[in-house]
């Protein structure tokens, strides 16, 4: 950590190599293991814990863990995943200078982190190798702009047909698995992809300055990865998957599509995303 003069605020701000933004909703059990895994790598960092408010009990528990571990803590209304992350990024921009900001789910444990991997890609958004407990890979979210899978998922949610949704998801998974068999055995350290999984994603400060707040707050729960990919594309920013960072995502990554109805937040986000995508075209 160092002090950096910031002409916008007319004073000095603490500067860190990395700022972590971690949005928590109700479940605080995974937060402490994440913090411990970050500390293992002895990097210059600050963690901002954003509590998406559920009740006073969970808020106080989250706050205690954060402050005990020298993290900053902010409490915000539960406006969804993108809302919480945007508030964390705003807080970071107002209070710190930094080179990179990492958006991490609380149910992540970092297994490998080589700082050189991100400093040499400081014009790109960067994603790690993400595995689940079942040793399934979650990155890349989309290897390329897969309009067929996107349309199948959208159509399935629109007409409430699970099998069509499953077909779109399965097609994307097959493409991912074929790519990963090549990539993991190759000598390549990184690879250009279209969209990265949102559970752990790295933004250089210069990219944040270029695109602004990266998340669409109307999308409460889902589809933020694809929307972000198109936002980056419009700004000419590339996404890279790197082997030099590896994380464990404790959730299995599956999203239930068994309850497809008007109140389903996943369905609403997907339909909203596809409408916005057509409007951008």
How would you portray this structure in words?
- The protein is an alpha/beta fold and 281 residues long.
- The protein is built from nine helices and ten strands.
- The strands form two sheets. Strands 1, 2, 3, 4, 5 and 9 form a six-stranded mixed sheet that branches.
- α5 packs across α9 (265-280).
- The protein is globular, with a radius of gyration of 19 Å.
- The chain starts with a strand and ends with a helix.
- Mean pLDDT is 89; it is low at 252-262.
Write a brief structural summary.
This protein is of the alpha/beta class and 281 residues long. The chain contains 9 helices and 10 strands. The strands form 2 sheets. Strands 1, 2, 3, 4, 5 and 9 form a 6-stranded mixed β-sheet that branches. Strands 6, 7, 8 and 10 form a 4-stranded mixed β-sheet that branches.
